[in-house]
Design brief:
The chain is an alpha+beta fold and 91 residues long. The protein is 40% helix and 19% strand. The protein has one domain: Arc Repressor Mutant, subunit A (Orthogonal Bundle), CATH 1.10.10. Strand 2 and strand 3 form a beta hairpin.
């Protein structure tokens, strides 16, 4: 099996955090999870969202993850409930 690439790892860190907590991580948390300096984490998050046709986005002019399919970090009218727990919002 091929070793996951850097963007795969960044995607996994963000998705795992969203599933576990219902909130997207800050780039410093992504950096810590990857074992890299904070600025490299920031650049990696921006690189992921800059990929062609990536359907998520950062809040304008910030480093904050707003939408990471299928989740939305800002509350929306689309609530996701699993086993009676509602801690997620959909795009």
């Amino acid at each position: 099996m091929k070793e996951p690439g850097k963007m795969d790892q960044v995607f996994h860190v963000i998705m795992k955090r969203l599933v576990e907590t219902g909130q997207a991580p800050h780039y410093t948390e992504v950096a810590a999870a990857l074992g890299v300096p904070a600025e490299e984490g920031r650049n990696s998050v921006h690189a992921l969202f800059a990929l062609p046709k990536f359907p998520g986005w950062l809040f304008p002019n910030t480093d904050y993850i707003t939408s990471f399919p299928p989740f939305n970090n800002l509350p929306t009218q689309y609530r996701i409930t699993v086993s009676g727990r509602q801690k997620w919002f959909a795009q």
